[in-house]
Specification:
It is a single chain. The protein has 338 residues and is mainly α. It has one domain: Rhopdopsin 7-helix transmembrane proteins (Up-down Bundle). The protein is built from 9 helices and 4 strands, in the order ββαααααααααββ. β3 and β4 form a beta hairpin. α2 runs antiparallel to α3. The N and C termini lie far apart (110 Å). It comes from Hortaea werneckii. InterPro entries: DUF7702. Keywords: Membrane, Transmembrane, Transmembrane helix. This is DUF7702 domain-containing protein.
């Protein structure tokens, strides 16, 4: 039997209508209970809908590709930074550009993920994501050039010399600047600026292709003179050779995107996600993985001088009478390798 409260009787709680498994009674004000339940349900529903929207955005193809880039280049940045510390902070050795590439990729993919999850497609975010993706070719080519330069420096009189690598280095840096300017002009509201940006991107694509072909020629030259390469550099020349096909795919993607039309899969502002996944991300991931593995197994580089059969360091001291000759030790009176 329910207890009825009089006007002067204080508020009591009732247990008669509460389930037998409950341990906390409710006040005899059912409208307050229903109001709280309704508000909690509304809040929970809004949170659930927001979570579903975020998950749906994350499942979009471009967002999935950006998430894959973050998952790969985050540990790649740590590994390349460790290798850079191991081999020394020198841009000429190539490891610096692997760190630069990882940073650029993380910036671009983070912007893409932010746009997908927050539905914020501002022009600055789009430009940042697109430009950081477009200039990824230069760090790979500069890294390859640094490795080939290190290999050729150990070839002694068979080396191509710094006069061959210095122009390639300058052209690569100039092409990087041209591609950045062209990509920036593409997003300009002026038609003339967009046309100028398109021409600059086409010129950058051709220059990148020329640099790649030059590095291919240097790699072939190094393979021909493989017996003259130091034994400690053999893994590095193998890595450069294995990475060339994947860099070729990346260069083809850059050239096609530079000359692509606005309605095709290689549209600069809106590249087909599957084309970008294979020709851009996959080729870069394989190339970076090969270079990182070579960085772990290759010893630290030290400038050597070969004097009358004795290997000496750059400070002129003999290295305990050891001869840095690669696979075959040469006689003391000879100046080259056999």
């Amino acid at each position: 039997m329910r207890h009825r409260r009089t006007e002067r009787e204080p508020l009591r709680v009732e247990l008669l209508s509460y389930p037998h498994w409950a341990t906390r009674p409710r006040a005899t004000l059912p409208w307050i209970w229903s109001l709280n339940a309704t508000s909690h349900w509304a809040v929970s529903k809004s949170v659930a809908m927001e979570f579903i929207d975020v998950v749906s955005a994350m499942l979009a193809p471009k967002a999935c590709l950006a998430a894959a880039e973050v998952a790969f280049f985050s540990p790649a940045l740590v590994a390349s930074a460790f290798i850079l510390y191991k081999h020394g902070l020198s841009r000429q050795l190539g490891w610096f550009y692997l760190v630069l590439l990882s940073i650029l990729r993380l910036i671009g993919s983070s912007c893409t993920l932010y746009m997908a999850t927050q539905s914020d497609y501002s022009s600055s975010l789009i430009q940042t994501a697109t430009i950081t993706s477009a200039i990824g070719t230069a760090p790979l080519l500069l890294a390859l050039m640094g490795f080939l330069g290190r290999i050729n420096e150990g070839l002694e009189h068979k080396s191509l010399g710094p006069n061959v690598f210095r122009p390639i280095h300058l052209i690569s840096l100039a092409t990087l600047i041209v591609s950045i300017i062209g990509a920036t002009n593409i997003f300009d509201s002026s038609p003339s600026a967009q046309e100028t940006g398109k021409k600059l991107l086409e010129a950058a694509g051709i220059l990148f292709l020329a640099v790649y072909l030059s590095l291919c020629g240097i790699t072939i030259w190094s393979i021909i003179h493989l017996r003259w390469i130091l034994a400690s550099e053999k893994n590095l020349i193998k890595a450069c050779t294995l990475a060339l096909p994947f860099l070729c795919v990346r260069i083809v993607f850059t050239v096609c995107m530079s000359f692509g039309s606005s309605s095709g899969p290689f549209n600069f502002g809106d590249v087909n996600v599957w084309v970008a996944a294979f020709m851009q991300f996959f080729s870069e991931a394989v190339g970076v993985s090969i270079f990182l593995f070579a960085g772990f197994v290759t010893p630290k580089w030290e400038r050597k001088e070969i004097r009358e059969g004795v290997s000496s360091s750059k400070d002129g001291r003999d290295a305990d009478g050891e001869v840095e000759l690669g696979e075959v030790q040469r006689p003391a009176q000879e100046c080259g390798r056999v």
